[in-house]
Amino acid sequence: MPFLITIVFLALLSSASTTSSAPYTPTDYILLNSGASSNTMSDDDGRHWVADADDLYSNTSSFSSIASYLEPSVTQVPYMTARIFHGQFTYKFPVSSGPKFLRLYFYPNEYPGLDISASFFSVTANNYTLMSNFSAYLVSSASPPQAFIVKEFVITVHDQQMLDVTFAPSPNSFAFINGIEVASMPANLYTGQTFGSVHLLDTNYFFELKNTTALETAYRLNVGGNDILKTDDSGMFRTWNQDSEYIFGAAFGVMPYQPNTTIKYTKATPVYMAPEVVYETARTMGPTASINLNYNLTWLFTVDPGFYYLVRLHFCETSLQYINQRVFDIFINNHTAEEAMDVIALSGGNGIPVYKDYVVWVPQSVNDLWVALHPQTRGKPEFYDAVLNGLEIFKLSKWDGSLAAPNPPPETAPLTQKHSKKKGTFFIQKRVILGATLSSIVPMVLIFVFWLRKHLLRRTEALNRRKVSPTLCKHISLADILTATNDFDNALIVGRGGFGNVYRGCIPGVEHEVAVKRLNSKSHQGENEFWAEIEMLSQLRYINLVSLIGYCNENREMILVYDYMVNGTLRDHLYNNDNIPLPWKQRLRICIGAARGLTYLHSGAVQRIIHRDVKTTNILLDETWVAKVSDFGLSKTGPVLMENVPITTMVKGTFGYMDPEYYRRLQLTEKSDVYSFGVVLFEVLCARPAVDTRLNEEQIGLAGWALKCVENETPEQIVDPYLQGTIAAECLRVYVEIAKNCLHDVGVERPKMRDVLGMLEFALQLQETAETNQTVIGDGDTIDRPHTIDEVV
Ligand SMILES: *[C@@H]1O[C@H](CO)[C@@H](O)[C@H](O)[C@H]1NC(C)=O
Ligand SMILES: *[C@@H]1O[C@H](CO)[C@@H](O)[C@H](O)[C@H]1NC(C)=O
Ligand SMILES: *[C@@H]1O[C@H](CO)[C@@H](O)[C@H](O)[C@H]1NC(C)=O
Ligand SMILES: *[C@@H]1O[C@H](CO)[C@@H](O)[C@H](O)[C@H]1NC(C)=O
Ligand SMILES: *[C@@H]1O[C@H](CO)[C@@H](O)[C@H](O)[C@H]1NC(C)=O
Ligand SMILES: *[C@@H]1O[C@H](CO)[C@@H](O)[C@H](O)[C@H]1NC(C)=O
Ligand SMILES: *[C@@H]1O[C@H](CO)[C@@H](O)[C@H](O)[C@H]1NC(C)=O
């Protein structure tokens, strides 16, 4: 029977004398030296720890223990003493509400009478699973070995709550802890940020980082600088490490510490954001433009797969003064996170710090997280260079509140190295890529670039030999493409996307105009998606789908050629443009066409296809206003038999349209498309974007706002003013009902696309009936507006 023991800590406040001048003073600050019996313990930083005195625990299944020896790099406080648990045990920390750092200190060493390698346990805090069946021993002996382990979490304590930290040994095992630290932090420092401030990579939109998400710090780096001690942080006792171990390939441009620079903190980047020294030091690419153009300044991190990560990049331009002096692109795991980053333009001047947050999904098969910078030359900046000052990476808790990851596999000979462990590191699982010294760097860049080029060439040759069913889809020569697009003339661009640009043009031997989609080699849409799209599209021929005419992949170009849609995207005819707004019946017919296209994808033809990126810009209109669903680059296929069985996949798609269930649970079904289509339906009715950050908060997201109005039975409030008085009441009622059902929070409750189609056809019928009964309305496609009929809203 497991023991269930709880200890409440009162009056545990302690303080560190060294921090009185720090920009931020935690309101709650607790340092608990587990297993210690004396209250007067200071660590090497001068922070005072309190003992979790034994008498409190006399009735529990826990006991204190003292490590058999301390390695030279390990400090006595808090590592020498430990508390050992043979049953479940909860510490309750009475703290104020708000976000807290929780830091757990483990020293997996020899304790008398215990085999530390047999210790497996779970730790939960306020219902977040921080670790599960965790072995400090396995983690510390994985490569590179660490003497001790510090885990840092960010947990928001809500009103009326305490911070509960529970240790639960795995069966026949024991748990231990050497020290616990709790420190409050300013609200909204990491979580609970205002909606719209965090970019979910791979989409155009945002990620809501709520305060119900718990974070685990994975990395915190003072890029280009030295380690920063906890006591030199801006008051929250965070550790900042130097970045040299994470640099991949070459990096020699370290901007020196500049004593003259004063860091001008702002309201957006307050003084506690990061200590000055983070902003005073930086890494740049180096002085030689020709070299910089040929490599990416890259950092490589090992992360646990299957989680979202928050990547915060800190910038401060201390050596340049003006806009367009140093402009660069930012890539995270091959996604373009930022194009044309200009620190001065963003911050407003020299010495002003700024930061940018990105959220990236790391799928199951991936252990790496890359951050890469590359000079952006398009605007002809003065220097072809890039700069970064600081970086933080956090793992985000899953929808079930878990942050736990499996233990690393046992090393082959961990015990023999026991005494030669390197200095304990703040974060687990560092990986040293290249121990580059400054003098070896230039040749390394060249070798690296050379290797990459050879590698790429070989790949491309192999791909060129791939075959696509020739009858369905023809190969078009690059020469013809260049003729058609006037050498990719910018004036011919009709669309831009994450994948690259779309040009219009005429291909010799093809009667009508074509759309040439030139895939950006930098985009996430790699060769695999390219071939997937060709193979899929060439099999699909349907009136409501865009037809692929041909493709080209010469000279490392990846190009798809489609029929050109004269009337552009559906969005072009809804808002933010000069087109005449479409009348209601035409909008309905377009929705019906798009619904047919999606129904065909979901249940038709050869395979079950989920579009994954349904939005008004992916619904195109031909010269007769027939709707054509486009952009299958993100599609995923599966056998029809598996209808509604989730495909677990990495999140792609566009925020604002994205099925909440999909990004919460990463389960993709046709119902995710149905959700997005529901957003499209409201967009068509309201003629406003799916996400509009200029509006006040409750109106930002169309889906939420529209549902609210429908709930309050005031749908007229959101109808496009241009349509007022032209929609038959019955038709509107049915239409709104369909859209609402599509947006149901739970996928299985949403209608199938086939049913959506049927209902839309019914709505059109209702409109037509209303119009024939009321002769005044006429066609509805004319500009005459009826105002006299009570059947009309
Ligand atoms: C331990 O048990 C004794 C007797 O059962 C009880 O009086 C005492 O309050 C307990 N102490 C704690 C800390 O629970
Ligand atoms: C968490 O966020 C909610 C809504 O965003 C807010 O009302 C609440 O005060 C926050 N709680 C804390 C403890 O910060
Ligand atoms: C944890 O979850 C349980 C059950 O859902 C709930 O009763 C309890 O209040 C939660 N505790 C905290 C600290 O959130
Ligand atoms: C805990 O992990 C160890 C090794 O990683 C494994 O052998 C053991 O079966 C796990 N126990 C549980 C309860 O998951
Ligand atoms: C510091 O400022 C002084 C006066 O403004 C200047 O002469 C000196 O060159 C500056 N030093 C550096 C390292 O920029
Ligand atoms: C990024 O792209 C490269 C080359 O295509 C590939 O080898 C690598 O695995 C990709 N990384 C990620 C995280 O997708
Ligand atoms: C830089 O990284 C991006 C994204 O992974 C990649 O597409 C590009 O080819 C890289 N550039 C160089 C020169 O390595």
> Which consecutive residue ranges, at least 5 long each, have pLDDT under 50?
10-19, 413-471, 633-652, 775-793
- Major sheet, described briefly? 13 strands, mixed
Rg over alpha carbons: 30 Å
Q: N-to-C terminal Cα separation, in Å?
A: 67 Å
Number of domains: 4
* Beta-strand segment tally: 41
Q: What would you say the CATH architecture of the largest domain is? A: Orthogonal Bundle
Give the count of helical stretches: 14
Shape, per Cα inertia axes: globular
Percent helix, as a range, is: 10-25%
Commentary on this structure:
ATP binds at residue 517. The structure is a single chain. The chain is α+β, with helices and mostly antiparallel strands and 793 residues long. It folds into four domains: 13-184, Jelly Rolls, CATH 2.60.120; 217-396, Jelly Rolls; 474-563, Phosphorylase Kinase, domain 1 (2-Layer Sandwich); 571-792, Orthogonal Bundle (Transferase(Phosphotransferase), domain 1), CATH 1.10.510.10. Helix content is 20%, strand content 25%. The chain is built from 14 helices and 41 strands. Strands 2, 3, 4, 8, 11, 14, 15, 16, 17, 18, 23, 26 and 29 form a 13-stranded mixed beta sheet that branches. A six-stranded mixed beta sheet has the order 30-34-35-33-32-31, sandwiched between helices. Strands 1-7-12-9-10 form a five-stranded mixed beta sheet. Strand 24 (327-332) and strand 25 form a beta hairpin. The radius of gyration is 30 Å and the shape is globular. The chain starts with a strand and ends in a 20-residue tail after the last helix. Bound molecules: 2-acetamido-2-deoxy-beta-D-glucopyranose (7 copies). One 2-acetamido-2-deoxy-beta-D-glucopyranose (NAG) binds next to loops. Residues 56, 58-59 line the site of one 2-acetamido-2-deoxy-beta-D-glucopyranose.
